Amino acid sequence: MILVLFARIVMIVDILPVDTIKQRYHGWKVWPRMMKDKTKGLPIVFENSYQRASKYWFYTGQVSYSLNFYRERRNNYNFWPIEDSLLGKPVYILDIHNPDSFETRIPITLGVLNYKYDPAFASFAKVKFIPSEKIEK
């Protein structure tokens, strides 16, 4: 019971001098505000990151969306009507993967964040492919 209580306190309060733990649990407060300034308040679409999109929205109060790769599982952002409100509008797209496809990079406590401006957001997250016939081999 004491160990569980200590673990919970470490997750809530920044008391340990270990950088890995600080970055994991307490490194979320600075970079969202910095990105909000850099993106001039435009909505942000995070690729393949439900966690970063949710934390960004929490710390800035700014709308964000999580766009998953087509082979990834769905999350709450797929069921909320946020995507419909962003279609055709200017957004910034952020990701920590595929740095070659992004124009700008910014170092944050959790690694490097890549981002780019998209003047007219387009998404096909709601498209479903249903075969008319099943072919079994």
Defining traits:
5 helices; alpha/beta; 137 residues; 19% strand
List the helices and strands and how they pair.
Elements: H1 2-12, H2 19-26, H3 30-38, E1 44-47, H4 50-60, E2 64-67, H5 82-86, E3 91-95, E4 104-108, E5 111-118
Parallel strand pairs: 1-2, 1-3
Antiparallel strand pairs: 3-5, 4-5
Strand order of the largest sheet: 2-1-3-5-4
- What is the global morphology? globular
Number of helices: 5
**Overall pLDDT score:** 80
Low-pLDDT segments: none
Q: Which H/E pattern describes the elements?
A: HHHEHEHEEE
In terms of structural class, how would the helical and strand content be classed?
alpha/beta
Radius of gyration: 18 Å
Oligomer: single chain
- The portion of residues forming beta strands comes to 15-25%
- The share of residues in helices is 25-40%
- Report the end-to-end length measured between terminal Cα atoms: 55 Å
Would you give an account of this structure?
Helices cover 32% and strands 19% of the residues. A five-stranded mixed beta sheet has the order 2-1-3-5-4. The chain has helices at residues 2-12, 19-26, 30-38, 50-60, 82-86, and strands at 44-47, 64-67, 91-95, 104-108, 111-118. The protein has a domain at 25-118.
